[in-house]
Specification:
about 220 residues; alpha+beta; about 35% helix; 8-stranded antiparallel beta sheet
Length: about 220
C-alpha cells in the first residue's frame, strides 16, 4: 500500500486571530464535515485559556456561530462553522480531493501542526503547494516513506531489510550488552562487509528507527 506519513508546520489562517489572543491555548482538531450547502463545520478541542479563546472568537474573521458542545474544566469541545473567508482559506477540500488522511492536527498561536498520511508524492506536493500558493509559511518537519520499495525489499518504520538484519544481529550477538559480547568488525564478517560499512548500516538503522517511533513529532534532528 502506498503511503507517505508527514508532519508539517504552517502559518494557517484558520483561528489565527483567536489564538493570538489566547497564547496559552492549544486547539486539537477532532473532525470536519462539509454540509450539503457546501459549508464547512469542524469540531475542535480547546485546552487552556478558554475565556481568552471565547473572546478571540468574537473578532475572528474565519469562524462564526461557535457552539460549545462539552466542557471538562479547562477543556472544551467546540463546533465551529467557517465563514466565507475561512472556507476560502481551508485546506480541507484539498485533503478530501487528494485522498489524504489527517492523523493529528493541533494549533497554538505559533501555528498549525498537521500529521497526515498521503497516498502519493503528488498528494503531498498538492498539500504543500496549497500553503505556498497562498503565501503562507510551511515547513516539512518529518517525512516517513511507508511504501514498498521497487526492489522487493521491505520497509518497516522506515528501516530497510538490511538495516533490520543488522539491528537484529547486533542484539542477538550481544553488541548492545554491557559489556559487549562482540564488535562491529565481527558483525561485519557475518555479512561479508567491512567494519565501517557495518557501522554505517547499524547507525543509520538505529537513527531511522528512533526518528520514526519514539521521537516527538516535529522535533527530529
Amino acid at each position: 500500500m502506498t503511503m507517505l506519513l508527514a508532519t508539517l508546520l504552517t502559518d494557517y489562517p484558520i483561528l489565527r486571530e483567536t489564538l493570538s489572543r489566547a497564547p496559552n491555548t492549544k486547539v486539537t482538531w477532532e473532525q470536519s464535515d462539509l454540509t450539503e450547502d457546501g459549508d464547512h463545520q469542524m469540531l475542535v478541542w480547546v485546552d487552556g485559556e478558554v475565556a481568552a479563546f471565547d473572546a478571540g472568537l468574537e473578532a475572528d474573521p474565519t469562524v462564526n456561530a461557535p457552539l460549545q458542545v462539552v466542557e471538562f474544566g479547562d477543556r472544551r469541545l467546540y463546533q465551529l462553522e467557517l465563514t466565507d473567508d475561512g472556507q476560502q482559506a481551508s485546506v480541507y477540500p484539498t485533503v478530501i480531493e487528494a485522498g489524504n488522511v489527517l492523523r493529528e492536527v493541533t494549533a497554538t498561536h505559533e501555528g498549525w501542526h498537521f500529521r497526515a498520511a498521503f497516498p502519493s508524492d503528488e498528494a503531498i506536493e498538492r498539500f504543500h503547494a496549497f500553503f505556498v500558493d497562498r503565501g503562507l509559511d510551511v515547513e516539512l518537519r518529518q517525512l516517513y516513506d511507508a511504501r514498498e520499495p521497487t526492489d522487493g525489499s521491505r520497509l518497516q518504520y522506515g528501516v530497510t531489510d538490511r538495516q533490520r538484519e543488522a539491528l537484529v544481529a547486533a542484539v542477538d550477538a550481544g553488541y548492545l550488552d554491557i559489556p559487549r559480547s562482540c564488535s562491529l568488525a565481527e558483525l561485519g564478517e557475518r555479512f561479508d562487509i567491512s567494519s565501517n560499512a557495518m557501522s554505517e548500516r547499524f547507525r543509520r538503522g538505529v537513527g531511522t528507527l528512533i526518528e520514526n517511533t519514539v521521537y516527538p513529532d516535529g522535533q527530529s534532528p
